[in-house]
Amino acid sequence: MRVLPVFHAFSVSLGLALPVQAADPALHIRLDQATPLQNDCQMVFVLENRMGTGIDSLQAETVLLSAENRVLRLSLLDFQSLPENGLRVRSFNFAGLACDQIGRVLFNAVGPCAPQGAAECAAALQVGSETAIEVVK
Q1: Signal peptide position in this chain (predicted)?
Q2: Coil, strand or helix at 51
Q3: Beta-strand (E) ranges in 83-133?
Q4: How far is 86 from 34, CA to CA, in rounded Å?
Q5: Which residues contact 3 (CB under 8 A, 6 or more apart)?
Q6: H-type helices in 32-130, by residue range?
Q7: Which of 27, 81, 94, 133 is buried deepest, with most CB atoms within 10 A?
Q8: How many degrees, rounded to 5, is the angle at CA 120 between CA 115 and CA 123?
Q9: Which residues are paired to 109 by β-bridges?
Q10: pLDDT band at 18 (very low <50, low <70, confident <90, very high)
């Protein structure tokens, strides 16, 4: 069991490096908050760009669903730009919709996503939620 750490220490001292696997490109979008505002629901998303390059523009078609999977709203969210390895927060207000009506947010499609392209961004998309509202793709 001690062979690998000793070998690693020995190889580093000789200036040799063990190969490091590059992480797959990822675009993380997490629903961080869903706050009721009178007759609206404000959703706050945290985005993290691990695509290996900056994103000049990013939009996503989302569907807000009830707990029974009934469509409440179809929306195009403009997440704007994201710097390489950057973290951004974006907020959206959904008028006339109470937060407790929403059971899920479905990322139905990604695009435009520039300069990468919609297919590349969709493949790298990873979603999550810190709220009672589930986020899926």
Answers
A1: 1-22
A2: coil
A3: 87-95, 104-114, 125-129
A4: 23
A5: none
A6: 118-124
A7: 27
A8: 150
A9: 61
A10: very low
Residue boundaries of the structural domains of the chain: 23-136
What integer pLDDT is reported at residue 127 of this predicted model? 98
- Per DSSP, helices labelled H in 1-137 are 3-13, 118-124
> Among 1.20.144, 3.40.50, 3.30.1380, 2.60.40, what is the CATH number of 23-136?
2.60.40
Closest CA to 77 of 119, 120, 43: 43
Burial readout 39-57 (b: 16 or more C-beta within 10 A, e: otherwise): ebbebbbbbbbbbeeebee
SS3 125: strand
pLDDT at 40 over 80: yes
pTM here is: 0.82
Q: What is the pLDDT of residues 68-92, one digit of tens each?
A: 999 999 999 999 999 999 999 999 9
C-alpha–C-alpha distance, residues 11 and 72, integer Å: 58
